[in-house]
Amino acid sequence: FDTLEHRHKMFGCECDIFVSDYKLAIEYDGYPWHQGKEDNDRNKERMLNLNKIVLIRVRDKRLQKLKDDDLLIPKEINNVSTIKNILKAIQKRVHLDIGHMQKIDTY
Description:
- By secondary structure, the protein is α/β, with parallel strands linked by helices.
- The protein has three helices and five strands; from the N terminus they run βββαββαα.
């Protein structure tokens, strides 16, 4: 993604990854940093949704899902299948151009 930004600040919150071309934010909720901070995480999601930002939330599997489509992953993102699951979640929630679709399909 050409417009990918790391630790992007908007609407009073910070997103781990933001792709402005698609109004897409990706959050990685690690353990123990997000343990007990579910209200903060939900408030961030509400703020992003109000501003038409799609949020893909990737959570350490030791944390509970905040919504059905959250991705629970092992404590480290270190294998191809985990990355493919994240890319599939993006495909489901964001209308990508054909070039990005093809790159994801062949990853």
